[in-house]
Amino acid sequence: MTKIPDLQIEVQENLRRIIVTMPRSTYDAMFGLIPRGLCLLSGFGPDDRKASIPSHEFTLLARKAATTKARELGWLTQGERRATAWRDR
Fold first, then answer.
1. What is the gyration radius of the CA atoms in the chain, in angstroms?
2. Distance separating alpha carbons of residues 3 and 66, to the nearest angstrom
């Protein structure tokens, strides 16, 4: 079993974006808030040989970390989709 890496999370609140990086690797992922939740905007790429996990595992961990952070910020609520603009009218 691979060791779960430490991840760094940066919030760009005015843009509603969350950036997750893994120190000492080339991995980073940017998530943006859209009406249906968080969307991966960029970040999935080739494996980094120096990293302890492959790229696809990082992307899964990054999504989980970004979702947790979005809930802490009140952007998302557990088990509930955000209302879409056209439904609010």
1. 14
2. 19
Give the start-to-end residue ranges of the domains of the chain: 8-88
Task: Give 15-27 as a DSSP string.
Answer: GTEEEEE-TTSS-
Contact 43, 27 (CB under 8 A): yes
Long-range contacts (CB closer than 8 Å, 24 or more residues apart) made by 66-75: 66/9, 66/18, 66/20, 66/29, 66/31, 66/38, 67/37, 67/38, 69/9, 69/11, 69/18, 70/18, 70/31, 70/33, 70/38, 73/11, 73/13, 75/16, 75/33
Tokens of 27: 């991995």
Which residues does the chain have with pLDDT short of 70?
A: 1-4, 77-89
The share of the chain scoring above pLDDT 70, in percent, equals 81
Counting beta carbons within 10 angstroms of the beta carbon of residue 29, is it exposed (0 to 12), middle (13 to 18) or buried (19 or more)?
A: buried
